[in-house]
Amino acid sequence: MSKALRIICWLVAVPGALLAALIVLPAPAYYLWMLAVGVSEWSVWLLGAGLIGASCGGVALLMERRNAATRVACALSLWTIVCACVPIVSAYNVAARAGVRLSWSRYLFGPEQAMPGVTLNEQRDVEFARPEGHLLRLDVYEPQRLAASGRQEDAQASNSLPAVIVIHGGAWSRGDKSDFVQYDRWLAAGGRVVFDVEYRLANSTQHFPAQLEDVYSAIVWVKNHAAEYHIDPARIALMGRSAGGQLALLAAYTTNDAPPPSDSGAMPDTRVRAVISFYGPTDLAWDYTHPGRPDVIDTPHTLENYLGGSPTTAPQVYAAASPIAHINAQSPPTLFIHGGHDQLVLAANVERIMPRLAAAHVPYTYVYLPWANHGCDYNFDGFSSQLIQARLSNFLDTYL
Question: Does the predicted TM-score (pTM) go above 0.85?
Answer without folding.
Answer: yes
